[in-house]
Design goal:
CATH architecture: Alpha-Beta Barrel
Structural class: alpha/beta
Number of strands: 8
CATH superfamily: Metal-dependent hydrolases
Distance between the termini: 11 Å
Oligomer: single chain
CATH class: Alpha Beta
Helix content: 40-55%
Bound molecules: zinc ion
CATH topology: TIM Barrel
Number of helices: 10
Number of domains: 1
Length: 270
């Protein structure tokens, strides 16, 4: 049983969104997917997908790289997310949100200074924490070169119900996250299968199995041995295979536990 806990079928370039979803439907593989929103329009798309396909769930959120589009409309935009998620049982998370300092340099050429851009990102993620709090939903965290600030703000807000998606930090940082929130999740993507990702592999080897989720972040980050091609939710199996190879545990136990972790974390009763 496999659950791709983070994908963006609407961003596929090689196939239409419908083709991606139909091929999952026809093969019943992976068993479940979570379509993740990055701004108002894509959150709405994910909501619709989850309505049209039994195997699909949705998250609504505003990605840090989209926040500049919404400056001075923070409250209105968060309200739109709130309206979307009300009375919709298939919206099971908020995100992806939080901080991305990696993609700041090109934005410096925009009308905003670097510090202002960071402040805007921070405002949006604090508002999304509050939304997650209010509806008791988990938060999907996106991090690029902002790990210290993220942990600091999580601690300040005392918010513990989160998944660190597409994990690329080391074992030591995972320990800090788990010390702060023993119930948090660390989600591995295709990057785990890359030959030079040794520090990520070490993390996947040693953290408790009960804290592990898997994802594709498709259409990006296609795992080995299909690196360089467009990614697809079905390739989540390569991420699982890598975890099985790394960990000294029974393969079935690994697969079942990770699947169950996903159901529990997103409060699904499948
Ligand atoms: Zn993503």
């Amino acid at each position: 049983m496999l659950f791709d806990t983070h994908c963006h079928p609407y961003l596929s370039e090689k196939q239409s969104e419908k083709e991606v979803l139909e091929s999952i439907k026809n093969s019943s593989f992976p068993n479940l997917i979570l379509c993740v929103g990055t701004k108002i329009e894509t959150s709405q798309k994910c909501k619709e997908t989850s309505k049209n396909y039994d195997f699909a769930f949705a998250s609504v959120g505003i990605h840090p790289c989209e926040t500049l589009e919404y400056v001075w409309q923070e409250k209105e935009r968060i309200n739109e997310l709130e309206i979307m998620l009300q009375n919709d049982k298939k919206i099971v998370a908020i995100g992806e949100c939080w901080l991305d300092y990696y993609r700041l340099p090109p934005l410096i050429e925009s009308k905003f200074e670097k510090q202002k851009i960071i402040d805007i990102q921070k405002t949006f993620f604090r508002l999304q924490i509050q939304l997650a709090h209010k509806y008791n939903l988990p938060l999907i965290i996106h991090n690029r070169e902002a790990k210290e600030d993220i942990l600091k703000i999580l601690q300040e807000e005392n918010f513990k119900n989160f998944v660190f998606h597409c994990y690329t930090e080391d074992r030591e940082y995972a320990k800090k996250l788990l010390d702060f929130s023993p119930q948090c999740m660390i989600s591995f993507s295709g990057i785990l299968t890359f030959k030079n990702a040794l520090w990520i592999q070490e993390t996947a080897k040693y953290i408790p199995l009960k804290n592990i989720l898997i994802e594709t972040d498709s259409p990006y980050l296609s795992p080995a041995p299909e690196r360089g091609t467009e990614n697809h939710p079905q390739k989540v199996k390569f991420v699982l295979d890598k975890i099985k190879e790394l960990r000294n545990e029974n393969n079935e136990l690994i697969e079942e536990t990770i699947y169950q972790n996903s159901l529990d974390f997103f409060c699904l009763s499948h």
